[in-house]
Specification:
Blueprint (H helix, E strand, L loop, with lengths): L4 E6 L5 E6 L24 E7 L23 H16 L7 E12 L8 E12 L5 E10 L2 E14 H19 L1
Antiparallel strand pairs: 1-2, 3-5, 4-7, 5-6, 6-7
């Protein structure tokens, strides 16, 4: 006979969640997996990522040839990367072993330049689930330096199996190379 038991535990935000088991277990330590965690952060949960702008963070370091000319200020690409890191940190507690979060889309405005040596902070705020089946996670992210806001973005992330993602990427490139032959 199958007995369903509800385990009621609390996460750091003190929100209960339930795990239904197919058979009785005397304690959580004899479960064949980690205890379930809430499936998403609380709305408005925030995390930050910071860096001090160095030579490698400058737009001028992104040039691929001598004809490429960019200013010696904090690169938009590096600001987006910092915004992604802050957003990923919000999701980290909800990842299972072998999972990671990846960026799906970024709608960004880089509104002010930042010189080398300045500290930049990106703060990501979780807005909620989005996408088909609510499988995606949406964030509002603001980047600031000592002078104030330098950029703002709407960012969407997905939680994926890292091995499956990497294997899929490798297969996609191999298929394209074979098709070109």
């Amino acid at each position: 006979m199958n007995v369903t038991r509800t385990w009621n535990t609390h996460h750091i935000n003190h929100q209960p969640y339930h795990l239904h088991l197919g058979k009785h277990h005397s304690s959580t330590s004899d479960l064949p997996f980690h205890m379930a965690t809430p499936s998403a952060p609380e709305h408005n949960k925030t995390e930050t990522a910071s860096l001090t702008v160095s030579c490698t963070d400058l737009a001028s370091s992104l040039a691929l040839s001598l004809v490429d000319s960019f200013p010696a200020v904090f690169a938009t690409a590096r600001m987006v990367a910092l915004m992604e890191i802050a957003s990923a940190r919000v999701l980290t507690p909800f990842l299972q072993p072998g999972q990671l979060s990846v960026g799906v889309s970024v709608d960004v405005t880089h509104s002010a330049p930042t010189p080398i040596g300045s500290k930049v902070d990106a703060e990501a705020k979780y807005l909620g689930r989005t996408g088909k089946g609510d499988k995606l996670f949406e964030f509002e992210v603001v980047a600031r330096d000592e002078g104030g806001e330098i950029g703002r973005a709407r960012h969407v992330r997905a939680i994926v199996d890292s091995k499956r993602l990497e294997d899929g990427a490798a297969k996609r490139v191999v298929k394209k190379e074979v098709a070109e032959l």
